[in-house]
């Protein structure tokens, strides 16, 4: 779960995200006292205890975990000085116990030799290099830092802008997706060697550089670019595409940021679609790793017709321990609102134990937003970067609307998590999964596309010539698109380069109290 801000103080309180809890491994904290062993010898051991003990109660697959003595969390402690690595190692091993019967591998298995879980992670709160923490605390609130663009090489000497964040200095200078980056500080670029790649990556770690870029009109110019903080628009592009005998609404959406950051832009886009009476929508989520469930719900309600009002959109399911009120570790954990204030409840402060974790109490139903009522077909563009809240929107609409997926297989993350502060760290471990109205939600391996298509980074968002968009237009106009489309004639495998971390998460901000 996302924290709106991360406290550096060792025993800090929760920073205002519903279903994110502060669990501090201090000497008087009940997490350590729950340990069946003697008191921990140091903070690292206490933190390892806490990681395991909280997982035993609130991890979604907690029933698959061994008992404390068998797992022996303190055995992960060492004097190497690499405490975070030790914690990550323990968390990884915890997440490898639950096995997906459909694959025979752990639900959180990423691949051979990879020692990071697919969903869960732990970070040091005070670390300025913690990219997931930075993204969690800033990006989803509408702020970003850096150069504001990402790169993909589609040839040894052909490096393109994969995307340019709207609102970034690069975007304001007219740089767009599909533009070709020729040189940095006068050095012509290629990826023929590791040294070439290291040079490009290194440029992103500097405060500024000069980029030589050729745009879609074959115009070449030098741009003096600086790394900075900036306010983003989460919408890459929205437009109405004029196709044969039809109008198609197109939305390229970057991240499910807070409603404060996303709502105005989304509502304006769908007002435009409603005015054009579009019957087909292309929702481009190729780089959208998720974000706030409240914003995903808004987008779903903007797409869906009012005839679905009152019907189930999705249900969040927690583990049986939490459903049955047996996660007693939450009793002393105070819940605070978005401003860090305690909430009075029955003459005392509201705690996380007071929240309702039942399926009935966590069912979201359709409630139409906007005036768009004419949509007959929804085409989602997906890649491996499409995750969490993006997949939630797709899964929620599938039972009710004609949904078609175009692109490549999505990430596969039907689970969300709580943020748990332990000493100077925050652990994000899978805590709930979502199912649609048909009880469907087993897309742990991702959604397979109905029509495969490359991520064609040589064309901008909304360009009808871009491969995935072209497939959608063909379908909307009654043409049969070719299978296995490719934007490249060569066998060169595209390579993403540069400093482009992505947040993958499904973040719940709403509060439901037990009745």
UniProtKB/TrEMBL annotation:
GO MF annotations in UniProt: endopeptidase activity; serine-type peptidase activity
Cross-referenced InterPro entries: ClpP/crotonase-like_dom_sf (IPR029045), PDZ (IPR001478), PDZ_6 (IPR041489), PDZ_sf (IPR036034), Tail-specific_protease (IPR005151)
GO CC annotations, alphabetized: outer membrane-bounded periplasmic space
GO biological process: proteolysis; signal transduction
Pfam families referenced in this protein's UniProt entry, alphabetically: PDZ_6, Peptidase_S41
Domain PDZ residues, every copy: 137-190
Family annotation (PROSITE patterns): PDZ (PS50106), PROKAR_LIPOPROTEIN (PS51257)
SUPFAM superfamilies per UniProt: ClpP/crotonase (SSF52096), PDZ domain-like (SSF50156)
Name of the molecule in the record: PDZ domain-containing protein
